[in-house]
Every structure is written in C-alpha cells, then in structure tokens.
Amino acid sequence: MWRLIAALSVGMKGTFHYAVRVGRSPGVYATWDECKKQVDKFPCASFKKFATEEDAWSFVGTTASSSQPASTECSGQSRSAAEESKPQNCGGEKRSHNSSDADDEPCTKRFRSTKLVSDSGQKFTYMGDAVAVYTDGCCHGNGQNRARAGIGVYWGPGHSLNLSERLSGRQTNQRAEIVAACRAIEQAKELNIEKLVIFTDSMFTINGITKWIKSWKSNGWKPSSGGSVINKEDFERLDKLTSGINIEWMHVPGHAGFTGNEAADCLAKDGASKPPC
Fold it and tell me: How far apart are CA 196 and CA 203, in angstroms?
C-alpha cells in the first residue's frame, strides 16, 4: 500500500505517484497495484497518476467535486465506504476492547491524508507543526499463561529513538498498546516536544484516553456496567503523561501496509521476543 515518504521529491523518469482521492484509504501510492487495491470495486472511486508526489498530494487534498479530471469508478457496489474502511483483523494478536468499558459508540476518527515532511536536522517527521510517531503493541499467545508481549515506538527510518521493548508485568495485547503510547510520550517530553501526533491501530487506547476515562474518573474508576476498569493503572499512567503536552490521536488500520504502522509492529514483535524485564 501507500508509503509515507520523508521528503517531497520530483519523480524521476519512469516513476509515478498514484493519488487516491476517494477510495478505501485515500493517499499517495508508489505503484499501480497498491493504488488498485484502494479503488477496485470501490463506489465512485477517484484517482489519478502524477509525475511528482507534490502534485499527487495536491490532488488528494482537493474535494471530490473538483473540476480536475480523474479516473473514477461508480459501479454501485453494495458495500458501503464505512464497511470498506474498517480496520483489518491483526492475525489474532489484536483484540477489540471489552464492551463493558464502552459508554459511547466507538470513536470513528481515522487516518487522514496529510503530507508528512522530515526535518533534516532533528530527523523527525512532522504533521503540520506537530511531531509524528507510530506506536504498536503485540502479544503472542494473548490470554494464555505463557503470553509474551512487546511494545514498539517508531519515529522514522533508522531513528535513534525507535524503541523495541518487552512489556513488563501482565502480558496482554491491550496493555502493550497503552504502554507503547506511554513510552512515546515519555520520549517526547524528554526532548521538550510540545505537539505530538500519535498514530496507533488501537481504538481501545484512543477511546480509553479521549472518551471513556472522563466517566471512569467521575465514577470512581468503574465502568457504567459495574466491576473494574480494565488496565486502570496503565490508563492512569497515560492520563498523567498527557498533561503538559498537546497530543492528537490518529487511528490507522493495522496490518494494512502503512509503513509507519508496519515498522512499529515489527519493533513490538521484536520486543516480545526479548527476555522478561
């Protein structure tokens, strides 16, 4: 699928950038095969080939009603856009949130098409004036006695801050996702980063810290269904860390070919293979 490229570059001879304005995952892709996966049989798909990445991103950023010519497919397929854009199952290692923790409908915020540019000095990737980072957690044998969980934090190709650690304590996938976000924020604060965009495939983490935690705290850390909040200590840690830093949470589908997410996933898996802390 599409790749986030560190810096804008002019396409070389024979190199094209495939822009998807309306499709399963709008963005810019390096090959036609990657682009085709996003638009094939997708209702009213809108896409076009460009010689430069800048022009491709410009096309993605325009509205669907633009007069700019583009390839379209309006075949009236029965599957809706919402169904097409649902996150993929992550090979049994990703678990959905426990419904007892949900007081509202799940957050539907998705990854949006945004041009990410690398700062040559700090080697960070920016989304506007905020530093972008990918986090992920995994757990082999999740829910079993011999489960092994790891966390991954990805700042960019070969970045010195890229982190791969074995999860300490209780070994579960949900804990790994939350702790991975915690570690990213801790790193950002150590460098006095004021604005951070965290890309994660964990809607449980996003909903927990942006929505459910408000009612949890007002209700004595108990969900509306009764019992105890799952991973209370980890959410308390995450809540404390979010103080004093501007954080935007972005959801990206897991195991869908997004470079940053795949890299964070690899770091998490490597962390799970390490000895216990």
Answer: 18
Helix, coil or strand: residue 240: helix
Task: Could you list the beta-strand ranges (E) of the chain.
Answer: 17-22, 27-29, 45-50, 71-73, 117-118, 125-127, 130-140, 148-154, 163-166, 195-200, 246-251
Q: Is 172 exposed, middle or buried (0-12, 13-18, 19+ CB in 10 A)?
A: buried
For 52-85, the pLDDT digits (tens) are 776 676 676 543 333 344 555 543 333 322 232 3
Residue ranges of alpha helices (H) inside 163-227 are: 173-190, 203-207, 213-218
Scanning 41-172, the segments in alpha helix (DSSP H) are 53-61, 81-84
Whole-number Å distance between alpha carbons of 203 and 209: 10
The pair of three-digit structure tokens given for residue 111, joined into one six-digit string: 């990854």
Residues in the chain: 277
Amino acid at 125: T
**221: exposed, middle or buried (Cβ count in 10 Å: 0-12, 13-18, 19+):** middle
> pLDDT value at position 8?
31
| CA-based end-to-end distance of the chain | 35
Which pTM does this prediction carry?
Answer: 0.61
Tell me how many degrees the CA angle 169-175-178 measures, rounded to the nearest 5. Answer: 125
